[in-house]
Amino acid sequence: MTGMTVHTTIDSPLGEILLVGVVSETAPGGTALASLSLPGQKGAAAVPEDGRRDPGAFEEVGRQLTAYFGGRATGFDLEFTESGTEFQRGVWRALEEIPYGATTTYGEIAERVGTSRVGVRAVGTAIGRNPLLVVRPCHRVIGADGALRGYAAGLERKERLLGLEGALSRD
């Protein structure tokens, strides 16, 4: 059973979330999360042909997401599967370091991963390929001018997540 691909959907304030994971004896709840995607998301995961639907495999993920959306949690303690290039993984690790309720810019992420300002576009592309929306907080990355830019699941959802976290300035 370890290594089997499983999936389910759960309801959220952002719409139905598709969760895909791999059964793992070491992961909290027994499933390492491979992707979390939302309806209409660019590059969203599809239901895997070789996987099986198993809502029970995602009970811990669901519990943590419910706590987050309910304002009772500021982070996640989940195991993820390894994916992406070395550069993408570096960018994604930088995303995981952005505190709840805070934002940073694409340029600041580029600096953290040792990329020049010219590499900001590559950083944006890597962020756009983040397979773990919400739990790997790419929504916390904004433009240098403070504007909300690029979010694979749509700017309205990015704004909702930042609002939930109290990260939007009120003018």
From TrEMBL:
Location within or outside the cell: Cytoplasm
Protein name: Methylated-DNA--protein-cysteine methyltransferase
EC number(s) stated in the UniProt entry for this protein: 2.1.1.63
Matching CDD domains: ATase
Organism per entry: Streptomyces inusitatus
PANTHER family, per the entry: METHYLATED-DNA--PROTEIN-CYSTEINE METHYLTRANSFERASE
Role of this protein: Involved in the cellular defense against the biological effects of O6-methylguanine (O6-MeG) and O4-methylthymine (O4-MeT) in DNA. Repairs the methylated nucleobase in DNA by stoichiometrically transferring the methyl group to a cysteine residue in the enzyme. This is a suicide reaction: the enzyme is irreversibly inactivated.
Annotated catalysed reactions: a 4-O-methyl-thymidine in DNA + L-cysteinyl-[protein] = a thymidine in DNA + S-methyl-L-cysteinyl-[protein]; a 6-O-methyl-2'-deoxyguanosine in DNA + L-cysteinyl-[protein] = S-methyl-L-cysteinyl-[protein] + a 2'-deoxyguanosine in DNA
ATP-binding is among the record's keywords: no
Subcellular location, principal: cytoplasm
Misc. remarks from the entry: This enzyme catalyzes only one turnover and therefore is not strictly catalytic. According to one definition, an enzyme is a biocatalyst that acts repeatedly and over many reaction cycles.
Span of domain Methylated-DNA-[protein]-cysteine S-methyltransferase DNA binding: 86-167
Record-linked InterPro entries: MethylDNA_cys_MeTrfase_DNA-bd, MethylDNA_cys_MeTrfase_DNAb, MGMT, MGMT_N_sf, WH-like_DNA-bd_sf
Recorded GO MF terms: methylated-DNA-[protein]-cysteine S-methyltransferase activity
Membrane among keywords: no
An individual GO BP term: DNA alkylation repair
Keywords from the UniProt entry: Cytoplasm, DNA damage, DNA repair, Methyltransferase, Transferase
Active site: 138 (nucleophile)
Family of this protein: Belongs to the MGMT family.
Source taxon at top rank: Bacteria
GO cellular component terms, A-Z: cytoplasm
Pfam families: DNA_binding_1 (PF01035)
Class of this enzyme: transferase
